[in-house]
Amino acid sequence: MTHAFSQLAPNLDDIARQGLYRSRRIIASPQGINLEIDGRKLINFCSNDYLGLANHPDVVNAFKSGVDQYGVGSGSAHLICGHSVAHHALEEELAAFTGRDRVLLFSTGYMANIGVISALLGRGDAVFEDRLNHASLLDGGLLSGARFKRYAHAGLADLEANLNKAAGNKLIVTDGVFSMDGDFAPLDELAAAAKNHDAWLMVDDAHGLGVIGEHGGGILEHYGLGQDDVPVLMGTLGKGFGTFGAFVAGSEALIETLIQKARTYIYTTALPAAVCEATRASLKIVIEESWRRNKLKQLSERFRLGAEQLGLQVMASASAIQPILIGDSQKAVDISNALLNAGFLVSAIRPPTVPQGSARLRVTFSALHEQQHVDRLLDALAKIIVGRK
Ligand SMILES: *Cc1c(COP(=O)(O)O)cnc(C)c1O
Predict the structure, then answer these.
(1) Does the annotation count 87 as an active-site position?
(2) Where are the alpha helices (DSSP H) in 8-145?
(3) Is 151 exposed, middle or buried (0-12, 13-18, 19+ CB in 10 A)?
(4) Are residues 272 and 353 in the same domain?
């Protein structure tokens, strides 16, 4: 006789045999380019804190005075008694920053994506998603009950063929900057396809907002697109902004619909107000300090050029995400461990986060890195992957 859940341990063994076992590293320092793990100091190349704001003194101080003013817990959901002056001010500042009518805060990006897609679509509608979209977008599409179609990565022809066959309300959903590849979605073409087929376009710009574009306006600034072209813009606050949370920006009707219908907005506790005060401080830095974006670009380009010269397989990325394609999962893990021993933290990304056979080192940069950090990482990669002495 077999017992309930007796397959758990053997399943874990299977995951390990495929080189897909995931485990956590325990960090003993603040976020930044230097991390302390198990008493060792490592140079960090895997954070999404691209602008180096997670431990910025202005952001930390705003958080502390936010706690003095509001305490820690927000007490309830936004619609009960959890929506403070700090939440509201941040929404208005993000609306001005994105050039949109209104903004609604969510507690996480995962929840924002699930909430928006489910609020906009139901049975009889259709959602179209890039094959490489973030898991939260895929889950949002599946949960919505709409007809769910994935199209080839950046594949306009594939998308248009599917759009032609669809009925009901149509929503095209894409990452702005693809999180595991670093390339940009072809947003100008997607926006045109959406208009041609009376569909809406939704962009998740978790890795673009604050980081891409002269003013940090993200992928939409890069393409010069606005609310008419991309009615639904989602952004996260735990990456370029260095804090925590997420938001959706768009028209009055969109935001009111989300307040009435998005279940991951209605049925969850609001972010702590102090986190919003911290984000207001980081938004100010994002707007004022374009040197962070410029430096990030220089560092990423320096790395990319160096990696190409070493014969490493870089990917088509113009962002601070510069993956090195390895292929085999166990090999990617072995290289990541060798880098760790050499003092560098670089994460190995494996299936199912990326497609089978495309395990990679996901190297990311921060505005706090210096050229010498990039050069030291390249030296380590030359030794470990290329076998150079
Ligand atoms: C990180 C990420 C999310 C999730 O945001 P959280 O605030 O971390 O939940 C959503 N979409 C993309 C593309 C992401 O990279």
Answers:
(1) no
(2) 8-17, 57-70, 85-98, 109-120, 135-143
(3) buried
(4) no
User: How many whole angstroms separate alpha carbon 389 and alpha carbon 386?
Assistant: 9
> Do 239 and 365 share a domain, yes or no?
no
Say whether both 296 and 284 belong to one domain.
no
Is residue 175 within 8 A of residue 147, CB to CB? The reply is: no
Mutate to test the pocket of ligand 1, among 111, 136, 177, 347 (most ligand atoms within 8 A of CB): 136
29: domain CATH number is 3.90.1150.10
Final residue of a domain: which of 288, 313, 339? 288
**What range does the domain containing 373 cover?**
19-48+290-388
Ligand 1 centroid from CA 109, angstroms: 5
179: annotated active-site residue: yes
Which residue, judged by its Cα, is nearest atom 7 of ligand 1?
109
Average pLDDT along the chain, 389 residues, taken 10 residues at a time:
90 92 94 96 97 98 98 98 98 98 98 98 97 97 97 97 95 97 97 98 98 97 98 98 98 98 98 98 98 97 97 95 96 96 96 94 98 98 89
pLDDT at 1: 64
The atom of ligand 1 lying closest to the CA of 177 is 13
Q: Report the C-alpha gap between 142 and 122 in whole angstroms.
A: 10
Task: Give yes or no: residues 83 and 231 share one domain.
Answer: yes
User: pTM higher than 0.90 for the full model?
Assistant: yes
Q: What is the pLDDT of residues 43-99, one digit of tens each?
A: 999 999 999 999 999 999 999 999 999 999 999 999 999 999 999 999 999 999 999
CA–CA separation, 301 vs 365, rounded Å? 10
Whether 239 is a known active-site residue: answer yes
Ligand 1 binding residues, C-beta < 6 A: 108-110, 113, 134, 136, 175, 179, 204, 206-207, 236, 238, 246
Strands 102-106, 321-327: parallel, antiparallel or unpaired by DSSP?
unpaired
* Ligand 1 binding pocket mutation candidate from 236, 265, 319, 347 (most atoms within 8 A of CB): 236
What domain count does the chain have? Answer: 2
